[in-house]
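Entry 14. Structure prediction run on the chain below.
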Amino acid sequence: MAKFLEYQGKEWLRKAGMPVPLGRVAASPEEARQIAEEIGKPVAVKGQLQAGGRGKAGIVKLVNTPDEAAAAAAEILAKTVKGMAIHQVLVEEKLDIKKEFYCSFVINGAREARSPMLMFSTEGGMDIESVPEELLLKINVDPIHGLQPYDAVDLCARAGIPAQELSKFAGFLTKLSQTYKKYDCQTLEINPFIMTGDGNLVCADCKMEIDNSSVGRHPEFGIAIARDLPGAPTELDLIGWSIEETDARGTGFLMNMGYDEVSPGHIGYHPIGGGSAMMGLDALNQVGLKPANYADTSGNPVGSKIYRVAKCVLSQPNIDGYLLGGFMMANQEQWHHAHAIVKALREILPTQKPGLPCVLLLCGNREDESLEILRTGLADLMTPEGPGRRIEIYGKEHVTDTKFIGERLLTLSKEYRAEKEAQGK
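Output returned:
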């Protein structure tokens, strides 16, 4: 799912007519001070991160003055939470909270439902997971017509909302349902939405996730990659998406795996299929190696697409090896992979990465022909002094032997790094 940060989600809520606090995002303490001055009253400074538990992580702070806002922003922007750096803070008015509530629209994938579902509770805020089941009410929502006012009134009445407030709450929830549908959300969670001292309902937080398949209908979102990512897309993520976006034949999924280009022991990782990918990760983990990336070429893609993916994987700087992980007896014709890998290796190894360890495991449909393509196409590189001297090619005899494949990669990668260090590279 394409995920929005809190400030982005709130901006789209505002455009849809939902009530949100006054404020905007800042990338520096100076900007935070300026925004607090413009708001002219106490503010909340909230680190922008796609992760829960921000309050417990200390990246949400309530302050009274612009100088305090700047100091809070400086402290938050210097933090790392769950391995992710914080680059922005949302500075918004501090709300007069009378009561906190919880609501979210999600997809109910149960066979008997297959529809959006509204979850509502009078117990909002942190630790929603610990709210007793009987206090978290659920109702399936018509995917065509959305939440109807009478269903919203009934839900709120069951939750214990006073009769004089039922119309207000039902209106809030039905409008949020319309927003959920308008933006093609997978998830729209407001935790909490609050009642202020003067009785208004306001979205104090926002978690918005958009259905990847709908991104093409929403150019206004400016989403660069319709894919689940742990943070901002890297250059490799953008390249991988450009391959998928322009060629739908088979899978060509490619993404960065947190590779820092400095730490040793990272392997350019090129599995073929999801199950195969898990076995390849096991091969790497068993010997202490790490994937620099994830690149799946399954679903019978054409050779040109496989070549583009392989070239990206191999071009990553400072990797200690390349693994083509065909740990499954694939029913796709494997000679497309063989032709693509030959072309990519012949372009990369001689001039850019001579001696790079390349363990190629390929098995399944057209296996014998595919292995012959690899051996013949790479034979002149695989001489003892050639740029492909650490290429090793395996077939079905090692299809489930993750320990063997991992150990071969480890041995070859140690040789390669020692060779580079001796050459001062």
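The mean pLDDT is 91.
Filed with the rest of this week's runs.
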